Fold this protein.
Amino acid sequence: MDKPAPAVHTIHEHIQKRWSPRAFSEKPVPADVLRSLFEAARWAPSSNNEQPWAFLVATREDHEAHARMLSTLVEFNQTWARHAPVLAIAVSELNFARTGKPNRNAFYDTGAAIANLSLEATSRGLFVHQMAGFDPRKVIELFEVPSGWEPIAAFVIGYPGDASSLPDPLREREVAPRERKSLESFVMGGHWGRPASFL
């Protein structure tokens, strides 16, 4: 389903086309495409080039791992995510590997890696839907995540599906217009709350 952002200013087409559907086709994502998506994540910027991210990934071909990962999602997300061909969990290393000191940018940097992955996915006709609705403790237990690492986001990867396959409340959200805050509300100039002069 094509649902481009109604951008007020010119942006790259992949940013404009990227959105987070819940209707996914069960069509598998080829292994070479998945490798390219995670290659894009690999080249995201990070503080001190620490690259504090790791990804747990389960495809539908690995039924056991896919079911185990699906079980870590909240029930609401399970209802639609079960159809996606790829489930994943982003995990951040909380301390710098070199010094052992806390890395306050770990989550930020992991988010940048997922953003790279999402745009690469969009360029290939795929979609990524990220979720906060999952149980990090269950992920740690079921996937034996080591101490010092924290699961921070779940996401699915797949090709677009048919919105009519979703239950009514989700279908309505799927076709609803996309909205964002105005630039003036969050791009500030010399004082908090004052829009930047170039706006």
Q: What stands out?
A: The longest strand covers residues 149-158.
